[in-house]
Amino acid sequence: EADLVGLELAARGAFKPMTSVSLWQKMAAAQKGRGLEFLSTHPSGPTRIRELEANVPKVQGLYEAARRG
């Protein structure tokens, strides 16, 4: 849920939403599989990336409006 809010705020600030996906891909690569999702309060890298990718289209219009505005 926090990622979706962050994605929306970033889009409203004219930050490209798809950048969140590349950020978490880099974070996952740096982590090299360490950590277990069920021991964490946050989703794992792959789960988080999938959820961000699924939500980017929902905020794309906000991003485009912010760029025009």
Q: Tags for this entry?
A:
mainly alpha, single chain, 69 residues
Strand residue percentage: under 5%
Instruction: Sketch the topology as an H/E string, one letter per element.
Output: HHH
Overall body shape: elongated
Helix content: 55-70%
Q: Output the number of helix runs.
A: 3
Mean pLDDT: 86
Low-pLDDT sequence parts? none
Q: What about the largest sheet?
A: none
- How does the helix and strand content classify structurally? mainly alpha
Care to describe what's here?
- The chain has 69 residues and is mainly alpha-helical.
- The chain has helices at 2-12, 19-31, 45-68.
- The chain has 3 helices and no strands.
- Helix 1 runs parallel beside helix 3 and helix 2 (19-31) packs antiparallel against helix 3 (45-68).
- The protein is elongated and about 40 Å long.
- The protein starts with a helix and ends with a helix.
- The mean pLDDT is 86.
